[in-house]
Amino acid sequence: MTDARTVFDRHLPDxxxxxxxxxxxxxxxxxxxxxxxxxxxxxxxxxxSSLSISLRDWGSTTRISxxxxxxxxxxxxxxxxxxxxxxxxxxxxxxxxxxxxMPLKIETSNTIPxxxxxxxSASGFAALTMALVQAFQLDLPDDTVSMFARLGSGSAxxxxxxxxxxxxxxxxxxxTDSFARPLEVRWPAFxxxxxxVDTGPKSHSSRDGMNxxxxxxxxxxxxxxxxxxxxxAIQNAVQxxxxxxxxxxxxxxxxxxxxxxxxxxxxLSYLKPESWQVLETLWTAxxxxxxxxxxxxxxxxxxxxxxxxxxxxxxxxxxxxxxxxPFDPL
Length: 330
What we know:
Strands 1, 4, 5, 6, 7, 8 and 9 form a seven-stranded mixed beta sheet that branches. Strands 11-12-10-13 form a four-stranded antiparallel beta sheet. It has helices spanning 4-11, 84-97, 121-135, 142-150, 206-216, 223-240, 243-262, 273-287, 311-317, and strands at residues 22-33, 38-40, 45-46, 50-66, 71-74, 77-78, 104-110, 164-167, 180-182, 190-195, 292-295, 302-307, 322-324. The protein has 330 residues and is of the alpha+beta class. The longest helix has 20 residues, at 243-262. It has two domains: 4-182, Ribosomal Protein S5, domain 2; 190-324, Alpha-Beta Plaits (2-Layer Sandwich), CATH 3.30.70. This is diphosphomevalonate decarboxylase. Keywords: ATP-binding, Lipid biosynthesis, Lipid metabolism, Lyase, Nucleotide-binding.
């Protein structure tokens, strides 16, 4: 059985070069076609492919430099060695270093507004992966870098690029064919609106919720095949820049994912009454002509997808929303 150490050993030199200072930025991303369920938990291998859009300047920057001892800094604050975030970062760095003594100073900062209630693990592990690759002067193909990022956080595999990216589920047991690639699509009018509902910690982590749903939901059996079909249909809509089809598919895909959770035993609901109020308001507005659609991850917050022509109307209906233009220059 393949483990993460074997994957890294296969792609890295026996002896790493002396690390050099390196900096990398990665945007966070929102899945338009959801990833929910793993075929291998240790390797973060998904049961279905997924497709996402990046969040431009909402993301993470990681700086790495040689040091006399390991240090992890977050938002300009040195973290104690027993801090869970610091431990997670160093354990991931150790996958590169393996048994080699190469102390590092790792500094991470996020530009994701706290009030937006978005997780930063995808952009954080993507930035960390790219910074480590640069620091150790590794000449690796993007597929391999994306695969490495997946071993830190599943969704990180899609956060190496700006724009749309598709993460392939793959079929190999060792995960060598499960990575993301960017779509060669520029859609300047595409917009995302983040509507915060609950920015506090979740009662169930995404990982726990996913495992519970897979293990107990009678609706989950139909999810992987439907989600795979959705992903391909959503990719086609993106490539055709067919907003109506894309919106309908993305919203249905998100609701289907949440349906599998609601059918779990006991039921699991990340959506709050306020989330449903946002959806009801959206559906009413759409009936009256608004061209916008919703997507929701394992959390209470609602994200809308729309085009620039609808931005003013969305802002008027949801004044608390934060608009992002993924294809605007940084």
